[in-house]
Amino acid sequence: MKLEEVSALLTPEDLPYSSGVERLPGGVLHVAVLTRMPGVSPEMVGWWFGEETTNSRGGEAPGA
User: Fold this and answer.
1) Lower Cβ count inside 10 Å, N or C end of the chain?
2) Is-contact 63 43, C-beta < 8 A?
């Protein structure tokens, strides 16, 4: 997947492949891994990738 195609990750449709490695023109490696996370809310993902990366003290995840 090229950087200009990244918005495809936000669609519910299946991608050409969900797990694998692809070498892009120019030698860049693209690694994709599909991880299903039933029961995880968007707020939980935001907590983990947003607040958690900037707050070294952590905290309780929303909905925990």
Assistant:
1) C
2) yes
**pLDDT, tens digit, 9 for 90 and up, residues 21-53:** 888 888 988 888 888 888 988 888 888 877 555
- Give the side-chain half-sphere CA count within 13 A for 41: 7
Indicate yes or no: pTM above 0.90: no
SS3 annotation, the chain: CCHHHHHHHHCCCCCCCCCEEEECCCCCEEEECCCCCCCCCHHHHHHHHHHHHHCCCCCCCCCC
Question: Residue 42's closest CA among 16, 18, 63?
Answer: 63
Token representation of residue 39:
């029961």
Nearest to 20 by CA among 35, 3, 32: 32
